[in-house]
Amino acid sequence: MAAQNEAELVSGSALHPVGRRLDVERTLFGKLRLPNVGKRWVGWTRRSRVIQEVEFPSQGAVLRGLLFLPEAQARKLPLVIMAHGTSATMLMVMDKYAQAFQLAGLAALAYDHRNFGRSEGQPRQEINPWIQCRGYRDAIDFAMTLTEIDSERVALWGDSYSGGEVVVVGAADQRVKAIVAQCPALGAEPPSVEPTRANFNILSDIFSRGDVRGSPETTTGPLPVVSFDQAGTPSLLKPIQAFRWFIDYGGRAGTQWMNSVTRVIPATPVPYQPVLCAPFVTVPTLLMVAPDDEMVHANYSVSKLAYDLLAGPKQWHDIGGGHFGLLYYPSELFEEASRVQTQFLARWL
C-alpha cells in the first residue's frame, strides 16, 4: 500500500518555493565529477560553463539536481527543466542532453524525481504521476528565483513516463513556454473519456490541490524495474531492451539507481491520462517518437492522437532505435535527438 502520509499529498500544497545552491568544485580536465563525496560532487566545464548542484522543496521533501549554465551572457537565459522517466536518475544520459543544451547557450535544470536518486521523499522508489507533475511545478517555482534565468522563457523536457507528465504540466501551468517529450508514455490505449474542457478542468484541479494518495487497489509493486526472466521474476518494464539499458546505465558509478519500484495511479474523478490534456497545450511542443517503440505505454498511435489534439505550434519527429536508442551515449541517435531538440528549443525560447 502506498504510504504517503504527508499532508502535502492530500492538499497539493508545497513548501515555500525557495532552494539553494551548493559549492561548485572545479576539476582539472573540465569533466563532471561523479563520486558522491558528501554534497560536493558537482563540477566545472571548459570556457566558464558551470554545473552547479541545487536543491528545492517539493511536496514535503527536498529535490536535488544540477543546474547547467552556459558562458556568462549580457541577458538572462532561457531554461529547460528536465526529469527522467520511470525510476531513472539524472546521471543516466539525461545529463548529456542537459550539456547539449548548455553548449547551445541554454540553461538546464536536471533533477531527480521525489523518492528517487539524490532527491528525498518516502516511500523510496515510489512513482506517483501527480506527485511528479507537481515536482515539475515546484522546479518552475525554484527557477523563478534564479537571477540568471528569464522567467518568460522556461521549457519542460521529459523522457518516457515524464514525457507524458510534461504534457500535463504544460497544459496546466501557464509559465511553461515550450515542451519537449521524447519517446513519451502517453498511454497504451486512447483515453476512456473524452478530452473535454470539463474533464481538463477536473484534471487541473487535481494537479493543483487534489487528493492523490494511493491505495492497495491503485498500487503496483514493489517489484523490480527490469528483469531478464519475466517468468521467474516479473518486472514493471518487461522488454529485454529495458533490461539491457537500465542494467548498463543504472549500474554505472554515481547514478544511485535501484532496481526496485512501486507505481501508484490514484483513483481520481478523471483518470490520469496525458492525452486528455493535449487539446489545452497551447505552447510549442516537440514530440519525438519511435515508430518501433517496444514499451506498451509509449503506443505510437496514441502519441499521434495526442499530437493531433495539441492546440499550439507543434513538431513531430520520428526517430529510430526503439524506446531506448536515443538514451545511448555517445551514439548517432543521441546526436540526432539532441540536435533536433536543441534547434526546436532555440527557435521557441
How do the strands and helices of this protein lay out in sequence?
Blueprint: H1 7-11, E1 20-21, E2 44-45, E3 49-58, E4 61-69, E5 77-83, H2 94-103, E6 107-111, E7 126-127, H3 129-143, E8 149-159, H4 161-172, E9 178-182, H5 197-209, E10 219-223, H6 240-250, E11 261-264, E12 285-289, H7 300-309, E13 314-318, H8 332-348
Parallel strand pairs: 5-6, 5-8, 7-11, 8-9, 9-12, 12-13
Antiparallel strand pairs: 1-3, 2-3, 3-4, 4-6, 10-11
Describe the model.
It is built from 8 helices and 13 strands. The termini are far apart. It has one domain (7-214, 271-348): 3-Layer(aba) Sandwich (Rossmann fold). Helix 3 packs across helix 4 (161-172). Helix 4 (161-172) links the parallel strand 8 (149-159) and strand 9 (178-182). The relative contact order is 0.15. With 349 residues, it is an alpha/beta fold. Strands 1, 2, 3, 4, 5, 6, 8, 9, 12 and 13 form a 10-stranded mixed beta sheet that branches. Strands 7-11-10 form a 3-stranded mixed beta sheet. The protein has helices at 7-11, 94-103, 129-143, 161-172, 197-209, 240-250, 300-309, 332-348, and strands at 20-21, 44-45, 49-58, 61-69, 77-83, 107-111, 126-127, 149-159, 178-182, 219-223, 261-264, 285-289, 314-318.
Roughly how many Å apart are the termini? 42 Å
Strand percent estimate: 15-25%
- List SSEs in N-to-C order: HEEEEEHEEHEHEHEHEEHEH
Q: Averaged pLDDT, please?
A: 90
The total count of strands amounts to 13
| Full CATH superfamily name | Alpha/Beta hydrolase fold, catalytic domain
CATH domain fold name: Rossmann fold
CATH architectural group: 3-Layer(aba) Sandwich
Q: Please, how many helices?
A: 8
CATH class group: Alpha Beta
Helix content: 25-40%
Largest sheet: 10 strands, mixed
What radius of gyration results from the CA coordinates?
Answer: 19 Å
Q: Uncertain spans, ≥5 residues at pLDDT below 50?
A: 1-17, 23-47
Number of domains as seen in the coordinates: 1
- The global form is globular
Quaternary arrangement of the chains shown?
Answer: single chain
What would you call the structural class?
A: alpha/beta
